[in-house]
Amino acid sequence: MTDKAQPKAAKRVAPKEKFNFFQDRRVRSAFYQLLTAGVVGWFVWYLASNTAHNLSVRGMNTGFGFWNVSAGFDTDFKLINYTPGIGTYGRIFVIGILNTLLVSFFAIILSTMLGFFIGVMRLSSNWLVAKVALAYVEIFRNVPLLIQIIFWYMGVFSVLPVVKKSLDLSFGTGWMTLNNRGLYISTPLPGELFWLTPAALGLALVGAVLFRRHARKVQNATGRQIKTLPASLAAIILLPLAVFLATGAPLAWDMPMLTGFNFVGGTSLPPAFLALLISLSIYHAAHIAEAVRAGILSVSEGQSEAALSIGLTPRRVMSMVVIPQAMPAIVPPLISNWMNVVKNSSLAIAIGYADIVSLFMQTALNQAGYAIEMVGMTMGFYMLVSLTISFFLNIYNKRVQLVER
User: N vs C: which end of the chain shows fewer Cβ within 10 Å?
Assistant: First the structure.
């Protein structure tokens, strides 16, 4: 052996990092973001300045001075008071928004209900029922919406009987009549104590929700099922009815009466509104039906078999087991369909329904001449409604995903 000590292992020294602009991730990311923001800002500035220059050269008005200027035209359908020559273009804008939201709201409800029904029918074990649902989906989904709107307006409502030969849809009571000028419905006139009836209805709904939650807790704890539907329906119907009768039935009706050449009183819905509502509902219901069918098929068949094996009826299996698990797959396309209902309502311009496009972006624009501002306001309205729908449905979708896990 030698007395020489073994040499110590040399320490590894990390190489000194050299700054490289193109390889530093943080610097490169910040640079590209600033470059993108600069390009976008320059493009917006160029577009705005070029547009302003062209408008000034042509002597066209700019700004929002038209908002309080009186509009000299009327509309056949409005939800708020408006007088031609006194009402302003700002009020016309509000009328267009309300008309658009009205038809979109009811179309969303009807298309969703019909779409779920047709989607479940598509998976029925009954051959005839499944084929009828398939025919519905294939026909209405593949015919352009604009053609369907024109068909209902020109081929159905325009050929209805004249006013004096109106169709009484209320079995001779005169409560609801239909003719080629639209649908006439009696208008409720609530009395002094009528507010107690909707209050009782709200209380009954809250009680039904709490009772359903209690039934679920009992079922989760003991496995015992409590039928909530009969008791809930009884409370929702009987409690408001009892309050309504106890307060002296404080509700009158403004009946539409045939006076001269048209009906007077009540509430009237023009043919354009009815044609647009039906077209939007049946067209988007076909798309929603396919989303519902795909969502149900995404649930494993073992879930249904397990639910049936413990004694659940097929209806309860669908409502309590399959549909809740299918909702995470149904909600994303449902968001798109709801947004498309609102945007596709702009096709009402083809049949003259007074929506925001027809009333504000066409008639008002032709009179006032503020094209950039009016088009921009219309675009902003549709974008705001779409983002609102997407925001709330995404919240619901996240809640469903958490429940599923």
Answer: N
Range picked from 14-18, 119-123, 170-174 for highest mean pLDDT: 119-123
- Beta-carbon contacts of 20 under 8 Å, excluding residues fewer than 6 positions away, are none
Q: How far apart are CA 78 and CA 62, in angstroms?
A: 28
What letters, b where the CB count within 10 A reaches 16 and e where it falls short, cover 97-129?
bbbbbbbbeebbebbbebbbebbbbbeeeeeee
- CB–CB of 187/174 below 8 Å? no
Q: In the CATH hierarchy, which fold is given to the domain comprising 89-183+269-293+333-398?
A: MetI-like fold (1.10.3720)
Q: Does the pLDDT value for residue 9 go beyond 60?
A: no
Residues in the chain: 405
Residue 103 near residue 276, CB atoms below 8 Å: yes
Q: Which of 299, 354, 294 is nearest to 321 (CA)?
A: 299
Q: Residue 95 in contact with residue 359, Cβ under 8 Å?
A: yes
Taking the domains of the chain in order of start, what are their residue ranges? 89-183+269-293+333-398, 187-254
Helix axes 229-246, 196-222, angle to 10 degrees: 160
Closest of 92, 40, 79 to residue 374, by C-alpha:
92
